[in-house]
Amino acid sequence: MLSAIVVATLALAGCGGSDSGSSQSSPAPSPGDSSRMEIGGAVQQPAKDQAPTERQEIITGQVALTAGDPVAVGRQIVDKVDDLGGRIDQLTEQPGSDDQDASSSLTIRVPADSLTRTLDDLRELGKVTSVSITKSDVTMQSQDLDARIGALTASVTRLQGLITSAANTADLIEAEKALSERQGELDSLTAQKRSLSDQVALATIMIDVTTTDAERPSTGPDNFWEGVVAGWNALLSAIAGGAVVVGALIPWFGFVAVIALVVYGAYRLRRTYNRPPSPPSGPAPEREEAKTP
Description:
Layout: H1 2-25, E1 57-67, H2 70-83, E2 87-94, E3 103-111, H3 115-125, E4 127-137, H4 139-164, H5 169-201, E5 202-211, H6 224-274
Parallel strand pairs: 1-5
Antiparallel strand pairs: 1-4, 2-3, 3-5
Organism: Rhodococcus wratislaviensis (Tsukamurella wratislaviensis)
Protein name: DUF4349 domain-containing protein
Keywords: Coiled coil, Membrane, Transmembrane, Transmembrane helix
């Protein structure tokens, strides 16, 4: 008996999810509305006094700006985000050096309704060179999650009541198994809804702060004397670099010389073993002249 009740409860939970989704997407008009659905499949008109569905959007953006001191500007951005009630998800600071300009990279999360104020604050801190804002509508996804969470919550409540009134161990085990599955689905959907709500509530903006062209140090000489000094320094650097290269090659030259001596010695030794024996010493025997008959 309880098994049939559990199956019916699961079926009702599935129907409840679909009914909740359909009721939210297409609410029925009140009896006093002048706009009614006509017989024959006419399209239903929404009630005039019905409140519109609140639009939910995920806002992401990228901002690039230049400033004289990118590291200091990055820290000022952190302070402004704190004032807005947001948070910093990522921060990278690169101090300036001879080979690389200073820069800052941030990923900030600010309230979605403070997006305009955030952009205005960034324009006060430096020169904004590019702005890209993207809005993704997730209204239907949020409504679907709400409907499924509501249906699963009702199903879990009913199963908990069935467990309380279970007559035997078999029914109790089956009801607890169904409850465990429903509770797992409910926890997963609740986590998805919480993550989606966080993305909707806080806009995500990635900011890159670099040095302005005017602040970059000049690398070339400005007059004749500076050109001479720069050439002399380049010559000394070349000589020093050449000496380093020669010093690094000397061990290799010694190694190659040793290998060459070993190969040459082996070659001479092989020639010595393969040389044919020399003829015996002494006067060569006289050859008898052929006699003429």
